[in-house]
Amino acid sequence: MVVVPQSSDLRPFEILGATKAVDLESALSSAPYGPMPDMVAVAADLYASDERIRNGVLKAMSDSPTTVALWGENVPSELDSRIVPLQHRLSRAAQVFKSHALAAAAAPATAIAATESFLTGGADTLRMRGNLVSMA
């Protein structure tokens, strides 16, 4: 599931396997219900620019069994002691899917690396599923 701005093109997310999309504003204004997700991934610039998202991430990291992953530049220093850098190794198939998703999003053409770097914290940080390797 992805949470995106209302006018977002969903095709790139569908290519990557998302089966459900929720409008960002609706998600942020509604009361939480149901179980917390196992993992939440958010862009660092969105974390820094939206207080509602920042508060949700901090709550997920402290009050629930949710693992949080952030990617991008300028991760706020308030998270320095709560997150660790990790890399995710992409299979060749994942690299192809990612290149198709980026093309569908009209992103600039770049080579798809064999690994992705991000920062993670919260529950289960040390037992992440998949091919994650601690870079700490």
Description:
There is one protein chain. The protein is of the alpha/beta class. Helices cover 32% and strands 25% of the residues. It is built from 5 helices and 7 strands, in the order βαβαβααββαββ. The protein has helices at 11-15, 24-29, 44-49, 51-63, 92-104, and strands at 2-4, 21-23, 39-43, 67-71, 83-89, 115-122, 132-134. The strands form 2 sheets. A 5-stranded mixed sheet has the order 3-4-6-5-7. It starts with a strand and ends with a strand. The relative contact order is 0.18.
Give the overall silhouette.
Answer: globular
Decide which structural class fits the backbone: alpha/beta
- Number of distinct helices: 5
> What is the averaged pLDDT score?
81
Unreliable segments (pLDDT under 50, ≥5 consecutive)?
Answer: 126-136
Give the end-to-end Cα distance, rounded to a whole number of Å. Answer: 29 Å
Strand content: 25-35%
Query: Using only CA atoms, what is the Rg?
Result: 15 Å
What topology, given as strand order, has the largest sheet?
A: 3-4-6-5-7
**Number of DSSP strand runs:** 7
Based on the structure, what is the oligomeric state of the protein chains?
A: single chain
Name the helicity range.
25-40%
How is the biggest beta sheet arranged?
5 strands, mixed
In N-to-C order, the SSE pattern is EHEHEHHEEHEE
